[in-house]
Amino acid sequence: MNTNARGPRPPAWAAALAGVTAGAVGLGVAELVAGLTTASASPVVAVGGAMVDRTPAALKDWAIRTFGENDKTVLVAGIVVVVALIAAALGLIARRRVGYGTAGLAAFGVVGIIAAVSRPDSGPLDFLPSMVGAAAAAWTLVLLFRRAGATAPPGTEPAPEPGTEPGTAETGTGPGIGAGSGGRAEPMTPAGPSVRRAGADLYTFDRRKLLTGVAVGAGVAGAGVVIGRLLAGRGDVTSARRSVARMLPRPAVAAKPLPAGADLRIRGLAPFVTPNYEFYRVDTALVVPGVDPRSWTLKIHGMVDRPVELTFADLLKRPLVEADVTLTCVSNDVGGPYVGNARWLGARLADVLREAGIRRDADMLLSVSQDGWTSGTPVDVVMDGRDALLAVAMNGEVLPAAHGFPVRQVVPGLYGYVSATKWITEIKVTRFDEDTAYWTPRGWAPRAPIKTQSRIDVPREGDSVPAGRTTLAGVAWAQHRGVDAVEVQVDGGEWRRATLAEVPGPDTWRQWSIDWDLAPGGHTIAVRATDATGYTQTAAVAPPAPDGATGYPTIRVRAG
Ligand SMILES: Nc1nc2c(c(=O)[nH]1)N[C@H]1C(S)=C(S)[C@@H](COP(=O)(O)O)O[C@H]1N2
Ligand SMILES: [Mo]
């Protein structure tokens, strides 16, 4: 087994451990380099991002549904586990020849580099983290293999000299530890004259040196991740958000105060205004883009007479409008959580576009975010007078980083993926038959107005309630048309009209409630909304793809 052709071989577990340690050092060093160069993409982020962009829509949909807003954490954890497994395998391969292992790690680095430089927001230094990381990993592997054992020249006595430190592996002197020397090391081959052949080096495995090397490697990896993350945190927008908070002008067109009856204040019912920290978040960004408002610009180009480039200061000089608008994600299941309502402050997108001189035959606004994500919004919708905004604030607060700081689009009536571009930096005025936005080739409709929908919040699916009179409540939405009626049905009986809360306008959701006498036993409760065009949401059940889920929200409860 211990043939020279194959080189010295530590035991399998040790080789796998050396591989995992090398992989960890590689990732840690890569994070550190990413932090130092403020490259946007450490290998994990780059590969993760590439996976997000290439994941089949159905799988991504499933991930969003299964892991909710933890989907990205799960993805990163998954990548780390896969990297660890591959690194362990490379460690095992390195038993044959260390060069095989280092070649594998180099290939890894190449994957990281390709992922990093092919990101839409990649910078000139984005190849560095993966390259340096892979080199560090390869070097670690070689070093650990050397530490793990030593080859005794033929004829050398491998027996230990008690108390002496093992010699360095590279010198070729015996490790000084053989079988029985405290049980800390195991020889790869029985260390006896019987295996000593002329010309054949004796290999002995030094467990202690390997483990100390692994410990150092783990330390380097951990320090790399922590320091790298801290350095990357320089891109943190906390202080930028604070200074923007001081510059935010008052609205030129303030929203009317919310009608007193907008919030029914029923326990368990979604509040009319969704607090920013509770607002759902859906995007493809593994790391929240940190956009500096001082260097931010918005380029408007394409089918316009006068391309413009607005700075953040330009934007704030414009008359800012306040509007209550409910955002909805197309991925939301019937009854799902990806809908939220906020008061937005922003410049009118239509005015900005008019100044740029939008051409008649343009029908699409392809908005682009800092991280390269794109969205296609119909021109006519934005120009029809509704509150389509380049928003800078949300519920009286500077836009949170996760919700698009410093500027995002908000267009009432359209699902987020075709309207609500966060971290927006560019709008290309174009045509649907010439350009394609991010989600379109991934199985989602190019145009997606929000469907009339409703939700039961109280009680929850599976709840037990006291028999007798109980309050049923929820929300309904049909943005920019407005909700005119909500009806509730119990156990397939007659539909009864719920009481509707007041609303500031047609662009927000609307709370509803109804008191119902529930006999003891199990009940099925369904709800449906009718919008101001007279359309009642369809009972036909459809999944979110390609343009929004349909069907009546239904829950089962037990009264008793
Ligand atoms: N840059 C960017 N903007 C984006 C997305 C994205 O992936 N990247 N997702 C969109 C989708 S699908 C939705 S539903 C809304 C969600 O906005 P929120 O996260 O602020 O709730 O943002 C939209 N804006
Ligand atoms: Mo979405």
Description:
The protein is an alpha+beta fold and 560 residues long. 30% of the residues lie in helices and 22% in strands. It has a 5-stranded mixed β-sheet. The structure holds ligand MTE and molybdenum atom (MO).
Write the SSE topology.
Blueprint: H1 12-37, H2 43-54, H3 57-67, H4 71-93, H5 98-117, H6 128-148, E1 149-152, E2 202-205, H7 207-232, H8 238-247, E3 297-302, E4 308-311, H9 312-317, E5 320-328, E6 339-348, H10 349-356, E7 364-369, E8 374-378, H11 379-383, E9 389-394, E10 397-398, E11 408-410, E12 424-430, E13 453-458, E14 464-465, E15 468-477, E16 483-490, E17 495-497, E18 499-500, E19 510-518, E20 521-531, E21 554-559
Parallel strand pairs: 3-12, 14-21
Antiparallel strand pairs: 1-2, 3-4, 5-6, 6-9, 7-8, 7-12, 9-10, 9-11, 13-15, 15-19, 16-17, 16-20, 18-19, 20-21
Helix pairs in contact: 1-4, 1-6, 1-7, 2-4, 2-5, 4-5, 5-6, 6-7
The protein binds the ligand Nc1nc2c(c(=O)[nH]1)N[C@H]1C(S)=C(S)[C@@H](COP(=O)(O)O)O[C@H]1N2 and molybdenum atom.
Molybdenum atom binds at residues 282, 329-331, 415-417.
